[in-house]
Amino acid sequence: MKRSAHIATVGTSILRNAARAGSAKRSLLSPQVLEKVRRWASAPVMSRDDAEAGERASPGTLEFSEIYSLLVADPRSYSAELNAMYPYLERGEVAATTLLAADSGTSELCAKLIAQYLEDRGVRSQVYRVEELGRSFDEGLYNLLDRAALVASRYREDGYVVYLNATGGFKLETAVLYVAAGLLGLDRVYYIHETMKEVVEIPTIPLTVKPEYRDLLEVFRGRDKVLRREVEHRVGRKILEELEKRGIIAVLGREVIIRRWLKLLLK
User: Is residue 25's pLDDT more than 50?
Assistant: First the structure.
């Protein structure tokens, strides 16, 4: 059996589910922790409550300890990410995981709880708080793709089968990450289907970039902004108009710009 490494985007399902469970007559959380969990579960990014959740994202804190006890007791009910990964864990296939948290305290807390759960079961785990993810779409997506590409490359070098767990996190960003999976050479993408409530595996179709797009990348090498006449000379006016129509580039007067995350995706 070939061991697998899993890259997972992480949302805040643990906090949301813990807050709901705490509404029962007999809460498994102490009153002071339950009150915080309820605030954190609905905290806007960059709010004081969100920052507080990040500050408590350590095994030595009371909040982490109590929430972790809930997670250990019923991991599939509390964590959407673990629920999706569970069949692979049961079969003993998972050797390593990378958990990609949004740039928020709540997502970081949930990622570290999951990492602790996996580490306690012999799965080597690491957490990255992806800068600007959930705060700035373009910059956050660029950083997400950049980190996923680097991690996937290292896992492949180590001989792992590489899976993407796309259950948690922001839906649009994970959709782009699925497209990237075909370019990055990931072996499989999976998630919990919203209606069927079971793990669905999606084969990754090998993707290639059209030659004219590669020519475009050569023009933009090391730059995000280029004169229009330079782009036209390299790829032609027809391709330039097609790229603009598709939203890959934007023509602003005499200059052409390309989004950093798209440039990264087209490599």
Answer: no
Residues 135, 45: Cα–Cα separation, whole Å:
7
What is the average pLDDT across 155-174? 89
Q: 106-110, 131-135, 193-197, 214-218: lowest mean pLDDT where?
A: 193-197
DSSP labels for 140-162?
HHHHHHHHHHHHHHHHHHTT-EE
Domains of the chain, start order: 4-203 (3.40.50.10770), 211-265 (1.10.10.10)
pTM: 0.86
C-alpha–C-alpha distance, residues 167 and 226, integer Å: 38
C-alpha angle 158-164-170 in degrees, rounded to nearest 5: 140
3-state secondary structure of 117: helix
Give the Cα separation of 189 and 167 in Å (integer): 10
Tokens standing for residue 217: 């990348």
Residue 200 DSSP SS3: strand
Token readout for 225 is 């902004």
DSSP state of 201: E
Query: Do 226 and 256 contact (CB within 8 A), yes or no?
Result: yes
Q: Strand 249-252 relative to strand 199-203: parallel, antiparallel, unpaired? A: unpaired
Query: Which residues, listed in sequence order, are joined to residue 252 by a DSSP beta bridge?
Result: 255
Return the higher-pLDDT residue of 153 and 209: 153
Q: How far is CA 47 from CA 41, 245, 257, in A?
A: 12, 38, 33
What residue has token string 């069949």? 87
